[in-house]
Design brief:
heterodimer, A: 249 residues, alpha/beta, Rossmann fold, OB fold (Dihydrolipoamide Acetyltransferase, E2P), 2 domains, five-stranded parallel sheet, five-stranded antiparallel sheet, 15 strands, 32% strand, B: 431 residues, alpha+beta, Heat Shock Protein 90, 14 helices, 5 strands, 67% helix, 8% strand, elongated
Chain lengths: 249, 431
């Protein structure tokens, strides 16, 4: 069960959010419980402090017409509930989205737009559900640090990791995302599961995403169209260790 | 045993010269090749005497050239190192011969202590000189025009050839001390002068670099002022219009001509309204960027974007005071990323281009998001050298971005495609 908190200084938006969540709940297997819906940050804090959840879901307005800003509120929440999923509810004019995203670990943003609100909430909650199930199955997220900020990604989302020549960096490839960050294959492979196989001294591949092994070219084709390199020894032991890998002959 | 020691000493001595000044490590294979070649050179059974200097130098610098990704500067540094080796050799030989120790003895009886002394002095000079060539200094040298690099290379080769010829000649006439001494002194002076020239060239390059930076700042300021003036002019016209509009409105209202009023509203007032929300305001945000290189590149690219009909947005909460990265490199990267973003965005309906600059506690994050036509290849493909979707492009843009950022330890790059293309560049402050 996930506890949901709503706080926006306009009552109409509190209602709309609450309705959108209830609509989603009907068709969802995961229980979302709205424990607090309020228009004042003080009331929110009172409710929050009474029973601090772990990994709660918070929908907050960025700019309250109050002494406490959404930013302060978010910081307070994160201190008490580090796994909090913060969703900011904004209008289009408030363009500090990236700043919020990078300084606080903001989960998502919802734009105050009557027509697409239900879809937006739906996407956010689906994402929450996905994370919840993944965590239950033991796929715990990996934090990828880029200097000061970090990204939490699941090992199952990683396609392959390669070292970058002449730099102490690696490139982590996801389906359609990539990170070029500090690190080495040796250190990251310890944090990954059995699905990762070192097919070349510069490359670590997620076996789940292999589409085809092409031994003649020394390459592995992945199911997103990416290609990573594979040594002769690597391809031999890959076939030995994992069954059912398609080979191009 | 003694011979082996002499060979090893000679190889180490020469290797110190050829490799000591190089700014980055050579590829391992080439390094082994060079050492192997030096060993081969010294164990070569058919002695060709001092003529051997020519194949020695030419082959060695070719190996350095290919081993250092065909960079002329590394060849120049390598040759400078070799020049130091020969100079030290000369400068030690001359006083010793004057003190009465003949050249034959130095090459025979005392060869081990002599070589060792030479090597030690060379090592000290090289280590000292290395401090001169590190970090920011190399940056100016690498930006040196090709022509100058070639001139310098020739100068060094000339210097070394002169020395070699002096020795070849000396060998032919059995090393008479006077000839060796005078020639040696003249050539040493010439070589030292070359090194001094090197120093002045470096200073010139540094000034040039700063001048270039200033120039681009100046150009940016001129552009900015011009833009602001035209903006002010627009406002002046608007103020004038505004008075006219009010009196015209008054006329329509007084005469109760609702139809005329409506027609006038749509024809004259609405367009003014759109002018007021015009995208010129986005430029105002650049005010809080205090890093000239960033300001000027953003300014230029935003103007381009505006002219091409995009409505770019900028998110910048705190002023940007400094960025812990070479400004020219940063502006080059931002230039490439923004050019790509503008081009891709233009091909879409949404025409989205948003830029965010965020100071976090220990780093600066640049984030560029743009709408783009569907990307059909995998993301990694975009970064391959020569990959492009346009006919008139060389496909080097993202490849360049990648090679610049990879080489910097405090700079991180990430990209994501989920219908929109989003790139972030994070530059962290070095403690």
């Amino acid at each position: 069960m996930i506890k949901v908190f709503l706080c926006d200084d306009e009552p109409t938006w509190v209602n709309r959010l609450s309705n959108a969540i209830s609509t989603y709940k009907l068709a969802s297997s995961l229980e979302f419980e709205i424990v607090c819906e309020t228009t004042s940050p003080e009331a929110f804090l009172k409710c929050f402090n009474e029973d601090i959840p772990t990994g709660g879901l918070y929908f907050l307005d960025i700019d309250f017409k109050d002494v406490i800003s959404g930013f302060d509120l978010a910081k307070h929440i994160l201190e008490a509930d580090p796994q909090a999923k913060l969703v900011f509810v904004t209008t289009h004019d408030e363009l500090a989205v990236e700043t919020y995203r990078l300084r606080l670990s903001v989960f998502d943003f919802v734009v105050k737009d009557g027509t697409s609100l239900n879809d937006q909430i739906g996407n956010t909650l689906r994402h929450v559900e996905h994370l919840y199930h993944a965590q239950k199955e033991g796929d715990s997220p990996l934090l990828i640090h880029m200097g000061d900020t970090y990204h939490a990604i699941f090992p199952s989302e990683i396609y392959y990791i390669e070292t970058i020549k002449e730099a102490h960096k690696i490139c982590i490839h996801l389906k359609s995302e990539l990170f070029r960050v500090s690190g080495s294959i040796a250190s990251i492979s310890k944090r990954l599961g059995d699905n990762f196989f070192s097919c070349h001294k510069t490359c670590l591949v997620n076996v789940r995403h292999i589409k085809q092994l092409i031994p003649q070219k020394g390459e592995i084709l992945l199911d997103n169209g990416d290609v990573c390199c594979c040594s002769v020894r690597g391809s031999r032991s890959l076939l030995k260790r994992y069954q059912g890998i398609e080979v191009d002959t | 045993m003694e011979n082996t020691l002499i060979i090893i000493l000679s190889v180490v001595y020469l290797a110190t010269g050829f490799l000591g000044l190089l700014s980055k490590r050579m590829k391992k294979g080439f390094l082994l090749l060079l050492i192997g070649y030096l060993f081969f050179f010294y164990t070569f059974p058919w002695s060709i005497g001092q003529w051997g200097t020519f194949p020695l130098v030419l082959v060695s610098i070719s190996i350095v050239y290919f081993g250092c990704r065909r960079n002329i500067w590394d060849v120049i540094l390598s040759l400078t190192g070799y020049l130091i080796v020969t100079l030290v050799n000369h400068l030690l030989t001359v006083p010793l011969t004057l003190m009465g120790i003949p050249y034959e003895a130095l090459a025979g009886k005392y060869v081990i202590p002599f070589l060792f002394a030479c090597w030690l002095i060379t090592l000290l000079i090289v280590l000292f000189a290395r401090r001169y060539f590190t970090g920011s200094r190399m940056k100016y040298l690498r930006n040196c025009p090709k022509k100058l690099q070639l001139v310098f290379l020739t100068q060094l080769l000339l210097c070394i050839s002169l020395m070699a010829i002096n020795f070849v000649y000396g060998e032919a006439v059995d090393y008479p001390p006077q000839v060796l001494t005078y020639n040696g002194l003249i050539i040493s002076m010439f070589s030292l002068f070359t090194l001094v020239l090197f120093h002045f060239l470096y200073q010139l390059l540094q000034e040039n670099y700063e001048l270039k930076l200033q120039q681009s700042e100046q150009k940016m300021m001129d552009d900015y002022t011009e833009r602001m003036e035209s903006f002010y002019e627009e406002f002046r016209v608007f103020r004038h219009d505004y008075k006219n509009i009010l009196s015209t409105l008054e006329y329509y209202i007084e005469s109760q001509d609702m139809e005329g009023l409506s027609e006038y509203f749509h024809r004259a007032i609405l367009p003014v309204g759109t002018m007021l929300t015009s995208n010129n305001f986005v430029l105002g945000k650049l005010h809080s960027i205090e890093v000239p290189a960033v300001k000027s590149i953003l300014y230029t690219k935003l103007i381009t974007a505006l002219n091409k009909g995009l409505s770019p947005t900028i998110e910048l909460v705190d002023p940007l005071k400094n960025v812990p990265m070479d400004e020219l490199k940063l502006s080059r990267i931002l230039g490439i990323l923004l050019d790509n973003a503008i081009e891709a965005s233009m091909e879409t309906q949404d025409k989205i281009l948003s830029i965010a600059i965020v100071n976090t506690t220990r780093s600066i994050v640049f984030s560029i998001t743009n709408s783009c036509p569907p990307i059909e290849v995998s993301l990694a493909k975009l970064y391959e050298k020569g990959y492009t979707t346009k006919e008139d492009h060389d496909g080097l843009g993202l490849y360049t971005v990648q090679s610049i950022t990879d080489a910097l330890e405090n700079v991180y790059y990430s990209a994501k495609y989920d219908g929109q293309f989003r790139q972030t560049l994070e530059i962290s402050f070095i403690d």
